[in-house]
What we know:
The protein is an alpha+beta fold. The protein folds into four domains: 24-193, no CATH class; 200-311, Phosphohistidine domain (Glucose Oxidase, domain 1, 3-Layer(bba) Sandwich); 329-510, Dna Ligase, domain 1; 517-635, ATP-grasp fold, B domain (D-amino Acid Aminotransferase, Chain A, domain 1, 2-Layer Sandwich). 30% of the residues lie in helices and 22% in strands. The strands form four sheets. A seven-stranded mixed beta sheet has the order 7-11-10-9-8-12-13. Strands 1-3-2-4-5-6 form a six-stranded mixed beta sheet, sandwiched between helices. Strand 21 and strand 22 (567-571) form a beta hairpin. Helix 15 packs antiparallel against helix 17 (473-481). Residues 1-22 have low confidence and may be disordered.
Amino acid sequence: MRNIFCLFVSATAVLSALQQTAQAQRVDPEDLEFEVGVATIPNRATYDKLSYKGFDIGRDPYLANLQYVKFIIENTGTDQAKFYFMNTKNYRAHPPYMRMVGVSNRGVVRGALTFLPHLETPSGGAGLYVFDFQPNDSYTFEQIKIIRDTLLAKMPLLKGNVAFHPLPGNMARYRSEKKEYDASDVAVYLDDQLYAKIAFLPLNAAESYGLLRVMDNETRPSPRDIVICKTLPNQMPRVAGVISAVRQTPLSHVNLRAVQDKVPNAYVRGALERKEISSFVGKLVHYKVTPRGYTIRAATKAEVDKHFASLRPAQPQTPVRDLSAKKIRPLAEIKFENSTSFGVKTANLATLGQFGFPTGLVPAGHGVPFYFYDEFMKHNGFYKVVDALLGSPQFKNADRDSQQQQLADLRSQIEQGTMPEWMTEALTRVQKVFPAGASIRCRSSTNNEDLPGFSGAGLYDSFTHRPAEGDLSKSIKQVFASLWNYRAYEEREFYRIDHRRTAMGVLLQLNTKGERANGVAVTDDVLYDTVGNYYINTQAGEDLVTNPGASSSPEEVLLGWWERDGHEIVRRSTQIEDDEQLLSDAHLAEMRKYLARIHGRFLKLYGKGEDDPFAMEVEFKVTKDGKLLIKQARPWVF
């Protein structure tokens, strides 16, 4: 019985093999229906329609989440050559496709053409196409050159924009023939160049209209300007869009502001040398940034006016201001839901301290509620001053310089105001809780920042109160006054937020000095769009990630969610030796554990599902004794 069964299985296997090797009737490339494939790709739109990007990649894991089109070349280098671009959106495996169109396996080249939008092209632009083959295939230099030339003939837009990508099976032969590649016009892309030759980064994908201007130290841009930054400014006012000629990170104040304002922002290497940009300087333009590139075209004033009219909310917005909490509280007594009384910055840090982390990871502190700000303003009659200012034609109709000066005068009045006796006593009591002679960091914490969909990054100011300055009220009043910074006023005005209902709380913490490094981590890769990684920026010493010096760049790390995935240093800091790391392997292992817990716990607190776009932005530092310290956590604005 067993022998009969074995014979049956063998016969079935042979029949199946015969069926699989049987070819369909031959279909030439020129006769293909588009749903199956094409013989040529005349433009980018055709490539997009044929391409696939996702995770259904079968035995090609290196293509995961990349945009690619597979191809087949029959009789390569002969007069009988046939070139098939597969409709990869519909067909992702070579063998069944070949059977379907009647192509045999003998002498056939099977490859993929992948688009890498961030990378520099051989011609110096951005948006590199790379071609490769089956992982174990190996071709000579002469064969690669013939295939490259065939690709150029079938897809002209590849000229100056394509490179050969050797996979493991071709690496040994490539190394042995490297001199021939170096002496030719055949460009080569190696995997270790993924982050080294970046010519374009879409920091914030969006579109806008405005006047294209070059921004320098003397430029005062308006909300209707699209600015080209030759260096990154310390603070970015509201603008309509940003093009930077120096590489940014998604955690710089420039980009956090762009994300918050929903305006396009991109790094473009050599931006001012590119005709498609420089030819529009001083003109009204439409500027669009997508994950795969940017476009700039001329725009009319009518288009610009219509765009800005559509951006502002139709109705006024009133931030939630709960004045029921009337006492300064230690962070251990403040809950996540108390953000409407103390501000999101204070409430989120307090919540972090309740996640069961090791002692000292999240610093202790105290929260000054909105009630103190409200009582201070009423005690000095400052609400009446605010009403008179905002309602004055001399303010409403003034230019930006005049408005800035009038708000500066208001801040000066607030800083000179007096506090009720009970408030001074409360601040004196909490000041005595801190070690004698210690400096206290007074951090702004309002009811219109650090919110899902609105970060408010860089709008308000924090101050360090030093022992020689005496009573803590001096620095508290400075924080209160920062509610009336011009950049904060301008942002609230644009979003029609009720200025009177905005309130300032203060987060009090022991000020630390001499840290080895400080950084920001996001619990998703918000820049390179890889899957399964945390994105981390770290700067040496006290040079801030969000506001770095002109000549410094941070250490960029992609940290795998799982220990088995390890980490990759995308870019090393310019402030240390080339082979050093700001975050040690031990620090990264700690960060992996902490970030996972922060993401999961806040995901639930914010009522998000696993499939919702959600990430937390976490500020941290490495103290002078090498310990990690978490300073802040807020939702990343998608």
